[in-house]
Amino acid sequence: MIAVVAVVIVVILVVVVGYSAGWFNSKSSSSSTTGCTLPSETLLKGEGSTLVAPLMDYWASTYWNGAALTYNAAGSSAGIQAVTSKTVDFGASDAPLTYAQRAAAPGVLTIPESAGGVVPIYNLPGFALNFNGNVLSQIFDGSQTTWNFSALQALNPGVKLPTTAITPIHRTGGSGTTFVFTSFLSLENTSWAAKWGKNTAWPSNISGGFGASGNGGELSLVQTTPGAIGYVDLNYALNAVGGVEVGTVQNPAGNFVRANITTTESALVDSNPTLPAGSGDWYNVSLLNAKGAHDYPITTLTYVLVYQNLEAYSSYTLNSAENLVDFLHWIVTTGQNDSAPLYYVPLTQTIISSDITSINSMTFGTQTVPVCVPNSS
Amino acid sequence: MDVPTLSTSSSRSANAPPNPSLRSKPVHRWPDLLFFGIVAAIGLSILGLAMAIVAILVYGSRYSFQAFGLSFLWGMVWSPTATPEIFGVVPFVVGTLVTSAIALLIALPLALGSAIFLTTNAPRWLRGPAGTAVELLAAIPSVIYGLWGLFIVHPYMATTVEPALKQYLGFTGLFSGTPLGIDVFTASVVLAIMIVPTICAISRDTLAAVPQSQKEAALSLGATDWETTRVAMIPYARSGIIGATILGLGRAMGETMAVTMLIGNIDKVPTSLLSGGQTIASLIATELLNNNGPLQESAVLEAGLILLVIALLVNVVARLLVWRVLSVGGGGAVE
User: Fold this and answer.
1) Sign of CA dihedral B193, B198, B201, B203
2) How does the average pLDDT of chain A come out, rounded?
3) What are residue B150's DSSP bridge partners?
4) CATH of domain B71-332
5) Cβ of B76 under 8 Å from any chain A Cβ?
6) What is the full DSSP assignment across A125-165?
7) Average pLDDT, stretch A345-356?
8) pLDDT tens digits for range A234-274
9) Residue A307 confidence class, pLDDT cut points 50, 70, 90
10) A32-67 pLDDT, tens per residue?
11) How far apart are CA A27 and CA A23, in angstroms?
12) Other C-beta atoms lying within 10 Å of the C-beta of residue A309
């Protein structure tokens, strides 16, 4: 009996010791890279934007066989907070940092990693509707309460609008999607611009409507509330289980444009924004209201936020810095191939080279971080 | 009692010293000391943890306290978009109290009714399975209740229940507004269903603990089933039932996920039961980790502190209530 117990204890000890010493770690020896030290098993942690979450999740499965990345879609402001408090390796936000946010997180780089469209979705089955910024702001500020109002009718000749009550649904908490949408309404409607302006938080003194958490929460609430209207990223609208009506939006050229990968991509190309340095002020970078005839007007860049000097993290080593830099390098190059199938816009060559300049400027203390691009497997 | 026993201090006579081997000698053996040390450490660590939570909440809410002072307590406006930002906690305190009160109002008769049924009237073969089923309800994660609420209860409320309530009870002003199914009322109803198992399970145990002699006494006096329950059982189990109710109320006040999904997340005082609102718990869920800056984060933490205080008050009131019931002359019961 004692012998059996002793054997069991020895076996357990061997397994524990062996596990902690990495004996059973087949992965560390099997990965291959292009001629530099490979990233270890370290997990990269990201948090932020729900707009880009489907793409991040997909990247988690294509980068390093899915072993290296976890992404918590808590919202853009959560991403900014998390990177400021250094609880994650990178934050993700569709809203650029404000002056105060940059002051609170000195040394953070803003790196655009993708672009997407924000679309109006609504629950009026069978109605294909056209919108413009002016009509949308009248709906979302609560000044129109039923669907058959004249300004909307003017955009939809021949459609018999229902008398259903409008229930506008906005996002709770700080949301990059809200920032993009309110930025668009501010451009299109002077009264919106004067009263509410652009912000990651929904204006709290607008009466009527509901709040929903995350792009996914917004979608479910619109889907289950007759007469509701909301705004979500294109990916959420087109991948909605059970479907949802997506409106077209009038662009500066006067055309009603349906958001898809072609119209958002041409908006990105046509707006060709002037890009600040990674450490610069991105607050006014915008892809809204691109001038092309078929550009979708509510298109936005979405950003990864990382520290330029990775010694900012007390737990970091040169090796973990390398892991993060490799990942960033990978998403702006190889990772861009994953964007279009998920309805995100692949970055233009100009943006990619600006990104690479920013990534190459990252350091660990005084040391430069060697870039080694992993083989995409 | 003639025979003095060692276990009752009153029985010790003055001239007979207590048995030295059993009493009053300090314990020095090291296993006892070790045991004492471990137990004390564990016990105190729980206390320390609770104090640490309070300390963190107080420390975290310092910006908000500096900015708003006591006006936070009666501030009606919560606006992170205003310049400067304004935060007041009233909408969420109202939301929390209203949803929990309605939930309790709906849940208490349901829970007590089923507890009484399960202890007195149900056929024996049904008691076990039905009791287990009620307890199982308590184990369902709240996010599941939330999903069920969003996809099943919400449309049903919007199309059937709330229009009817508005039509027949609209004159009270409680049910004004558009019935959309995402509002204080729906959140309260789902909360009620969530706390029924808690209240029911504990009440059932308390009722089951009523001595058979009590019931037989009532029955032998010719009482009906209802009279037996009313006269013999409920008074005896009263303190346990109050305890169960307070536990349910506590759960309702702290419930987060399901409420967040159903209440509409509007940072305003609800104007009717059919308007959206926000509870303190749902405020924390939506805005603590996702906000526009340190002042908002601090204000959310202060709201959390206030929730803690409210929960504490409810507990104190409950204790007083139980104590009063017992001293006025209820029976012994499970607490």
Assistant:
1) negative
2) 86
3) none
4) 1.10.3720.10
5) no
6) TT---EE-HHHHHHHHTTS--BS--HHHHHHSTT-----PB
7) 93
8) 999 999 988 999 999 999 999 999 999 999 999 999 998 88
9) very high
10) 344 445 555 567 889 999 999 999 989 888 886 555
11) 11
12) 19
- Give B217: exposed, middle or buried? Use CB within 10 Å, 0-12, 13-18, 19+: middle
Separation of alpha carbons A39 and A69, rounded Å: 12
Please say whether the beta carbons of A286 and A302 come within 8 A.
no
C-alpha–C-alpha distance, residues B144 and B109, integer Å: 24
Q: Has residue B72 got a pLDDT over 60?
A: yes
H or E element at residue A27: helix A27-30
Residue B156 has pLDDT above 50, yes or no: yes
pLDDT band at residue B15 using 50, 70 and 90 as cut-offs: low
Q: At what angle do helices B184-208 and B234-254 cross, to 10 degrees?
A: 150
Q: How close is the nearest chain A Cα to the Cα of B215, in Å? A: 51
For A190-215, b/e burial (b = at least 16 CB within 10 A) is eebbeebebbbbbbbebebbbbbbbb
Q: What is the mean pLDDT of chain B?
A: 85
Which tokens is A227 given?
A: 């007469």
Q: Give the nearest partner residue to A210 out of B80, B182, B287, using CB atoms.
A: B182
Q: Six-digit token pair at B305?
A: 């502190």
Which residues of chain A are within 8 Å of residue B286 when distances are taken between CB atoms? 172-173, 211, 213
Token pair of A129, please?
């509707």
Q: Residue B227 carries which side chain, given as an amino acid letter?
A: E
Preceding omega of B84 cis (within 30 degrees of 0): yes
3 state SS of B155: helix
A42 φ, ψ to 5°? -50, 135
Percent of chain A with pLDDT over 70: 86
Cα(A18)–Cα(A146) distance, rounded to whole angstroms? 68
Set of chain B residues whose Cβ sits within 8 Å of the Cβ of A217 = 261
